[in-house]
Amino acid sequence: MQLQEQVIEQIRKSLDIVDVIGNYVQLKKQGKNYIGLCPFHSERTPSFSVSPDKQLYHCFGCGAGGNLFTFIMEIEGMSFSEAAQSLADRANIDLGPSFSKNSHSDPNDQKKKQMTEGLELLTKFYHYLLTTAKYGAPGIKYLEERGFTSEMIERFRIGYAVESWDAVTKLLQKRGVSLELMERVGLIKKRGFDNKYFDRFRNRIIFPIFNMRGKTVAFGGRTLGEDKPKYLNSPESDVFHKGSILYGYHLARQAIRKNSLAVLLEGYVDVIRAHQAGVACSVASMGTSLTEAQAAALTRMADTIIICYDSDTAGIEASFRAAEMLQKNGKVIKIATMPEGLDPDDYIRKFGGDRFKSDVIGASQTLMTFKMNYLRRKRNLSDEGDRLLYIEDVLRELTAQHRAVERDHYLRLLSEEFSISLDSLKKQLHQMSIMVQRREKQITRTAPLTRSNRIPPAYEMAERRLLARMMRSREISDQVQDKVGGSFSNDIHQALAAYLYAYYAQGNPPDEGLFLQKLEDPALQRKATELSLMPMSEQADEKEIEDCMRQVIRRSQSSLIADREEQRKKAEQSGDYELAARLLSEMISVKKQLGHYQSEHD
Question: Zinc finger (CHC2-type) residue ranges (predicted)?
């Protein structure tokens, strides 16, 4: 085994796939495996399975599957070498300088690596400047006046950019970091008149922005002077995609998993303040527009999500949009209402952390109550027409409410407020629910069949069972190679069989995880994972193997006969009777072989 393969194998055996995936997906034990909601497609019922024995994962809904490396590549959008580096860091394994040169990596990997190294260097530099009295006095004074503790300054690695045009530029040059790459991540800029670089952040408190793994990918800077803008942020780059990041996620992850609760805020200062107040499950969406990627990260980890945005019109609109997005996955969504004119940072500084936990987070509204208040703002309830429209709006929202007790509760509130009989409201809701169900059925009828709707034919199931057994046993693989060879009808099954024959020929042991690691084609990896996690008895029955081989051979021979028959007809139609006779002879020979094989095994 080559050195690089040895290192990859060492990483694979050093980490537990349940622990790694558990950082992204809320997993629950079910029998020998763990299950959860698939992170790669939206679903309400868990179909994502993780096998600690085989160190593999597979989604029975969308077909995603693989091992540690493929999971990190998919979930983080990484190349193989980036995923290997990330997992090696987690396992405290040194990949060595030759790894990235020899790995099948993306040409941009080195540039991304240099960018993240430059960002990490400056995170340390800015933090050093803040915590050193000679340079950081203005920054420390501001943070102390704002009530930031030294613990939070350390936890979030807050820094300070001195009032200098070239402090960062000189450090980067001294350390041999590419200034061009640092310009691309928005840390320095080039002057137009002399093409010289200068520092972009000056006299600002620096808030490092971390990705989901806790790596610095950007900075936010709050001015201590009169410079505009008040907050200056890094632009998007190859390593920073704002819509895929939840600020503070790497620090909040453990608390979110423990409590199955996440608190969603707007900005990084709010998150730091909330953590300081003891709400350690707080994260921020880096702005007011929650993205699908951010929503997926939250719903994978928490059963309850509390949205705590500003109380102004923009914040309420953003809360409504975020709630709509988050509730798709069947989670409990609540809305924490802030007093007018205050954000979480202001509130905690004014009233303290305990009141924030009890009077804001603890008093959060149900999603339906929030929606009713939101819809109320859109209508003039003193107008009869608007009142009726408001009632219809609420009933429309209630059609999506699956809990009968809650539906009844809100119907009674409507009945009492507007003096409408409860029975008439129930009838109206029933009619609207029927219309919604009809629309959903229509969509279902017109939608194409999914993977799960298709029942594979017997010969295909036989091929799948054979391949699953072959991955677990070299003896079975040798037996299939001798009698079946490459006669699998499915192209992807045929390719997997060929790879298995070669895998064992190289002296490798029957290890499904190792076999999967040697497959570079994602489609083959997914299929191999699916087959590996098929429910089967531990020991293979000799009759089972013989029956499966007979099914595969029979299908192969039948396909060959059908193919020859088609060729024979074409030959006769074109007048080539010699070729037609030869094809007929071949067909007879194949039929005899098929009959002989069947009689031997009947």
Answer: 38-62
Identify the H or E element spanning 49.
Answer: strand 48-51
Q: What is the DSSP string of 9-22?
A: HHHHHHS-HHHHHH
Burial class (CB in 10 A: 0-12, 13-18, 19+), 207: buried
229 close to 235: Cβ distance less than 8 angstroms: no
CA 484/CA 295 separation, integer angstroms: 48
Residues 25 and 36 sit within 8 Å (Cβ to Cβ)? yes
Structure tokens that stand for 510 in this block: 């029957």
Tell me, what amino acid is at 164? S
Contact 262, 256 (CB under 8 A): yes
Tallying the residues shown for the chain, one arrives at 602
Dist CA 474 CA 194 (whole Å): 68
Give 247's DSSP letter: B
Distances (CA, A) of 368 to 200, 220, 396: 45, 35, 11
CB of 266 closer than 8 Å to CB of 310: yes
E strand or H helix that includes residue 579: helix 577-601
HSE toward the beta carbon, residue 473, CA cutoff 13 A:
18
Structure letter (DSSP) for residue 210: E
| pLDDT tens, residue by residue, 397-445 | 888 877 788 889 999 999 998 989 999 999 998 888 888 888 767 755 5
Nearest CA among 377, 286, 268, 369 for reference residue 323: 369
What are the structure tokens assigned to 337, written together? 């209402």
First vs last C-alpha separation in the chain: 44
C-alpha pair distances (Å), 355 with each of 114, 271, 349: 44, 16, 11
What's phi and psi for 599, nearest 5 deg? Answer: -65, -30
Query: Which run of H or E residues covers position 307?
Result: strand 304-307
Q: Six-digit token pair at 411? A: 């119907």
Residue 93 has pLDDT above 50, yes or no: yes
Q: How confident is the model at residue 130 (pLDDT cuts 50, 70, 90)?
A: very high
Taking the alpha carbons of 78, 79, 83, 86 in that order, is the dihedral positive or negative? negative
**What is the average pLDDT value for the chain, to the nearest integer?**
86
| Alpha carbons 514 and 367: distance in angstroms, whole number | 47
Q: How confident is the model at residue 1 (pLDDT cuts 50, 70, 90)?
A: very low
Q: What is the pTM of this model?
A: 0.74
* Relative orientation angle of helices 133-145 and 109-131, to the nearest 10 degrees: 80
Q: Cα angle vertex 146, ends 142, 148, to 5°?
A: 95
Closest CA to 372 of 330, 418, 427: 418
Helices (H), 225-359: 249-259, 268-276, 292-301, 313-326, 344-351, 353-355
